[in-house]
Amino acid sequence: MITFDSAFDIVLSYVKPLTAEVVDLYSALGRVLAEPIVSDMDMPPFDKSAVDGYACRKSDMANLLEVLEVIAAGQVPTKNIGENQCTKIMTGAMLPVGADCVLMVEDTEQVGCKHIKYKSTSVKNNICLLGEDVREKDVVITPGVVIQPQHIAVFAALGYAQVKVFRKPVVAILSTGDELVEPSQKPGVGQIRNSNGHQLVAQVIRAGGIPNYMGIVEDTERATFDAIKKALESSDILLLTGGVSMGDFDFVPSVLIRCGVELLFDSVAVQPGKPTTFGKTDQGKLVFGLPGNPVSSFTQFELLVRPAMHSMMGGLAKLSVEKRTLAVDYHRKRTDRLAFIPIVLTESGEVNLAEYHGSAHIFSLPNAHGIMAVPLGVSDLKKGDKVDVRSI
């Protein structure tokens, strides 16, 4: 049995980035950027007005100004600004030659048909200067960022109708166990519905991957071998739930070895999720054997599989941890494993314990806000202690 930190490091050490592909802007949302975004021009591309107003010379702003023309956004000025002259200008329009400031329209008054007078004494330029945001050939966004709507706006502004992103990993999902039936079926005596497989499909989608749900595998070595072999042929990652502990019908570890998987660990000092298994193939494919209890499989996916997927897609493989204040006392009897406990947050953001009956208690998760880490060797935490919380 190894520590969780060792398991985490082992998993990430065998992750290989996927190849990149070019997609259109809408398809890029939520993907990881695989190329630097470089500006093909200065931004703004010309001096432009930051407000609706009158472009003039600062030295003339106290004088009566003659209005030469009106410049709308997108139009090019036809007249230069001379002494005691101005041009009415709209926000974003190109500044005429000779002007060095823009008087806000609300600070001016009309004098006759062709003149204005400035009513204020402030001296603000109200000009967006050529290239003040970005210069031509600047690298504006670097590879590795998860693309959000604000990135899409920058791509569009810089002329990127398509961008290069890392490919999404294909994740095969197999559930083992003769006791399992699909959600559409009424379980018979001794049977349960397969919640793990469908939970993992949703987790894979949320993590940015492409799930390939391959159904329930009966508890025979032959069926397990055939299913694993087929899954490895068509996926980047294989997730199995059940069949990795010490039962008489837990064939998964031995079958994985027969399928060419090198097992790198088969037990982690965590609760829930002790029998979590990890291996890799010579082709760089990753295999995770997750425990059959739903809270265990959910938790170990978030702690080990999701970071591996993010790293595979070119992103940062870090666990998002927040320090929060415990709102109640906590006690446990056994301290030989790092524990992850479902929690709910109070209105003030403090940590309270969710109702939790153990790793089979699937109903503890829907109302939980996160999981709290209880370090190995620690039996008691006191109200007011700072604890590590991972959002789920």
Automatic annotation (TrEMBL):
Any GO BP: Mo-molybdopterin cofactor biosynthetic process
- Which keywords annotate this record? Magnesium, Metal-binding, Molybdenum, Molybdenum cofactor biosynthesis, Transferase
- Domain of life according to the entry: Bacteria
Supply the Pfam families for this chain. MoCF_biosynth, MoeA_C, MoeA_N
Spell out the molecular function terms from Gene Ontology: metal ion binding; molybdopterin molybdotransferase activity
Q: Is Cytoplasm among the key words of this record?
A: no
Q: Name one GO cellular component term.
A: cytosol
Any keyword Magnesium?
Answer: yes
Give the reactions, separated by semicolons, that this protein catalyses: adenylyl-molybdopterin + molybdate = Mo-molybdopterin + AMP + H(+)
Where in this chain does the record put each MoaB/Mog domain?
172-311
Question: CDD domains per the record?
Answer: MoeA (cd00887)
User: Hey, which pathway is this one from?
Assistant: Cofactor biosynthesis; molybdopterin biosynthesis
Report the EC code(s) recorded for this entry: 2.10.1.1
Q: Which cofactor does it need?
A: Mg(2+)
The record's section on PANTHER family has: GEPHYRIN (PTHR10192:SF5), MOLYBDOPTERIN BIOSYNTHESIS PROTEIN (PTHR10192)
Q: What does this protein do?
A: Catalyzes the insertion of molybdate into adenylated molybdopterin with the concomitant release of AMP.
Q: Which family does it belong to?
A: Belongs to the MoeA family.
Recorded protein name is Molybdopterin molybdenumtransferase
Q: Which organism is it from?
A: Williamwhitmania taraxaci
